[in-house]
Amino acid sequence: MKRYVGCAVITIMVLLVIGCQGPEQMLLKKYFNAMQFQDKTTLGLMAVDPVTLNVSKWEIVSVGEETTKPAELKAKTQAEEDAKKQLEDLKAKGRETEGPMQEAEAMLKTARGKSKTIVQADYDAKKATYDAAVQKVKDAQKVLNLAKAETAEERKIEVLSVTEIPGIEEMEGEYRTKTVTVRLTLKKEDRSDATPKDYIIELRSYKLTNPATGRPARGKWILVKMAPVA
User: Fold this and answer.
1) Of the given ranges (27-31, 65-69, 120-124, 215-219), which has the lowest mean pLDDT?
2) 191: left (phi over 0), alpha (psi -120 to 50) or beta
3) Of 16, 95, 100, 112, whose CB count within 10 A is highest?
4) What is the pLDDT of residues 100-143, one digit of tens each?
5) How far, in Å, are 77, 108, 158, 183, 218 from residue 30 at the CA level?
6) How many CB atoms sit inside 10 A of residue 36's CB?
7) Mean pLDDT within 147-157
8) DSSP labels, 101-159
9) What distance in Å separates the CA atoms of residue 115 and residue 126, rounded to the nearest whole number?
10) Residue 156 and residue 164: Cα distance in Å, rounded?
11) Under a CB-based contact definition with an 8 Å cutoff, are residues 87 and 140 in contact?
């Protein structure tokens, strides 16, 4: 009887220890184990931009407060579409200014005498309008390029957490995030231990819902960023 009671107590204690560990403990243990074995496949399934460091020892220094934020892929996708439409509209307006400028340029080539001053002024004005339109197109292209990059990055993060889902760009939801400070001891080239250095890791886990079906998709915790403490 005492043996059974003792086993039960040990089992409860083990469960309590596991229950007290946050998702970061098991996640980072698996991550740094994969790093030590240079298992790039496992690292790629756990981190957005996995790094390979020669880690000999690691420990968690602190865990930040967990916060919840709206998922951003749907909004970023819409922002990209808006930027694309804005660019096309500005291109159309730019083409409208090109014809008058070219006509004024042709007239300038044949203008003579006093009329050339008037024609020159007309050309200069239309050329300035055209140049301004071209600059707006260039600026809009930069906005679109940035929107595309942000959408692609956010999609990469969400897919890593919840896996590839058809129509993920239209899904709504939220993600939990927290930062963890870890202390890493790295091996130097001579195989001796370097001075331990702290790194900040951002973790995320998504929970999305398909608005058409109402079907939820709960994601796993992943590493979004890892950078040394300045």
Assistant:
1) 215-219
2) left
3) 100
4) 999 999 999 999 988 999 999 999 999 999 999 999 999 999 99
5) 33, 73, 20, 16, 20
6) 15
7) 97
8) HHHHHHHHHH--TTHHHHHHHHHHHHHHHHHHHHHHHHHHHHHHHHHHHHHHHHHHHHH
9) 17
10) 9
11) yes
| 24-71+171-228 maps to CATH 3.10.450 | yes
In angstroms, the Cα distances linking 51 to 34, 88, 161, 164, 216 are 11, 39, 18, 23, 31
Domain range summary for the chain, segments of one domain joined by +: 24-71+171-228, 73-154
Instruction: Tell me what pLDDT residue 3 has.
Output: 52
Query: Distance between CA atoms of 34 and 39, rounded to whole angstroms?
Result: 5
Place of tokens 């496992």: 42
- For residue range 44-57, list pLDDT tens digits in order: 999 999 988 999 99
Radius of gyration of the chain (CA): 29
Determine if residue 67 is left, alpha or beta; phi over 0 gives left, psi from -120 to 50 gives alpha, anything else beta. beta
Q: Tell me how far apart the alpha carbons of residues 142 and 148 are, in angstroms, rounded to a whole number.
A: 10
pLDDT (tens digit per residue) in 161-218: 999 888 899 999 999 999 999 999 998 876 778 889 999 999 999 999 988 788 889 9
C-alpha to C-alpha distance for 173 and 68, rounded to whole angstroms: 10
Task: Provide the β-strand partners of residue 202.
Answer: 179, 225
